[in-house]
Design a protein that fits this description.
Elements: H1 24-44, H2 63-70, E1 79-89, E2 93-101, H3 103-107, E3 113-118, H4 122-130, H5 134-144, E4 155-161, E5 166-172, H6 174-177, E6 181-182, H7 191-207, H8 213-216, H9 224-232, H10 237-247, H11 260-276, E7 280-282, E8 291-293, E9 299-301, E10 308-310, H12 312-323, H13 326-346, H14 354-363, H15 365-376, H16 388-404, H17 407-410
Antiparallel strand pairs: 1-2, 2-3, 3-5, 4-5, 6-8, 7-10, 8-9
Helix pairs in contact: 1-4, 7-12, 7-13, 10-15, 12-14, 12-16, 15-16
Length: about 425
């Protein structure tokens, strides 16, 4: 199968973060619009007709619509049918599909095994819409992914509707096409695997280090502070992190549970440092479960919806502290930092000094920890984004990193 993009349908991304930051006055209006739209979709089951239509769910994709998406550069190719497979739900709904072509489509090597991410339900749309993350993957797959030489799923369609928060990201199903195996919080990640993960980060960070394109071309990008402020508009993250601490108390390092105020203030400082440091393009959510390994052994990274601009250590620390067991992280972290710094420089970034980079690493475990404390401390109105066991496994790894690295002290708290 060819990896060449068989279509050129992406529209220019012009959304700024503020366009997805409704204040409390406008939230009620948005709830009504989105709620009424979801109800209407359930009643009528609309199907997309043109490339400007965003499917409201995966099984609404027709052969005719998929032909416009997949066969644009091959006029003799035809989509003969589509079969929908299984999937899963979290922040978005994910479902596999298998596309059948005529002989011209087969000869052209058009993709058959695909995977779609969509915001099907009311809860999903409110989550991605209010969090302001809808522009992220469209922007990444439109402008960034074609420029990178890293392993990540290829997108054939990526769009959203700003009014209804309907979204669809149609991707290469790497589990089928590349034999990919996705990592889990329970894996014992090996040294070659973690180095492969850092290769991905260095490839992205190095290419866009201090680039003016972060502000000019990638205008949807938020900073870590922007992202936190966006979430704070509709949930009490500090309160839910406190609940998460209570639910995780048995796996935390001794005494950390009693330091919730210092943890929170240190977290705020860490976000500020990540926002004000020399910026690069950040994945923004690079925990271990967003990495995968292909059948050739190459490590890849998916789920780019929380793309940000900010300090390299934000991504680096999140990857290291979520992917490695406590023991391996302690044994390898200094060597791995040197490995990343060398790879960053080789990919076009600066040659950072080790001591300064080590301090930045020590200061950044707070985001990952609070992200998962918030997840496990969810209220009943929020979607269950990850199983509790996964959350607790990551919280254990990250909380011990905070203690081992004396991150609170390193942040001056």
């Amino acid at each position: 199968m060819t990896n060449q993009n068989p279509m050129s349908i992406f529209r220019t991304v012009t959304t700024t973060p503020g366009a997805f930051a409704p204040d409390r006055v406008t939230v009620a209006r948005k709830l009504f619009i989105v709620g009424a739209t979801v109800a209407w979709e359930k009643l009528t089951g609309p199907t997309p007709k043109t490339l400007g239509d965003v499917p409201h769910r995966t099984d609404a994709m027709t052969a005719g619509w998929l032909q416009q998406v997949l066969c644009a550069e091959h006029p003799n190719a035809k989509v003969l049918g589509v079969e929908f497979g299984g999937g899963s739900s979290g922040t978005t709904h994910r479902r596999a599909l298998l596309v059948r072509y005529n002989d011209a489509g087969i000869r052209a090597g058009l993709p058959t095994a695909l995977y779609n991410k969509s915001s099907d339900s009311l809860v999903s749309r409110l989550t991605v819409g209010l969090a302001g993350i809808l522009p992220g993957e469209k922007g990444f797959y439109t402008l960034v992914e074609p420029e990178l030489d890293v392993e990540t799923p290829h997108a054939y369609f990526a769009d959203y509707d700003a009014r209804t928060w309907r979204s669809s990201i149609l991707l290469d199903d790497v589990a089928t096409t590349k034999g990919a195996r996705f990592c889990t919080p329970f894996d014992q990640i090996t040294r070659p695997q973690i180095e492969g993960m850092l290769d991905v980060l260095a490839g992205v960070h190095g290419r866009y280090w201090n680039s003016p394109r972060l502000d000019n071309d990638f205008r949807w990008l938020k900073t870590p502070n922007d992202h936190q402020d966006q979430i704070a508009k509709f949930i009490s993250m500090r309160g839910q992190c406190a609940v998460g601490l209570d639910r995780s108390v048995e796996i935390l390092p001794p005494g950390l549970h009693r330091q919730r105020d210092r943890l929170w203030s240190a977290y705020v400082t860490a976000l500020d440092l990540a926002t004000k440091g020399s910026p690069t393009f950040l994945h923004g959510d690079c925990h271990v479960a967003n990495y995968y390994q292909t059948d050739t052994g190459r490590m890849g990274l998916c789920d780019w919806q929380v793309s940000l601009k900010g300090l390299w250590a934000y991504d680096y620390c999140y990857t290291l502290t979520s992917a490695l067991s406590i023991e391996n992280r302690r044994a390898w972290e200094r060597d791995l930092l040197g490995y990343y710094l060398d790879r960053l420089h080789a990919e076009g970034g600066p040659q950072l000094g080790f001591d300064d980079a080590w301090l930045a690493y020590r200061q950044q475990p707070l985001y990952g920890l609070h992200a998962w404390l918030w997840t496990v401390g969810r209220s009943r109105l929020q979607p269950k984004m990850h199983p509790p066991a996964n959350c607790l496994s990551l919280i254990e790894r990250m909380s011990h990193a905070v203690a081992d690295l004396e991150s609170i002290t390193a942040l001056g708290h």
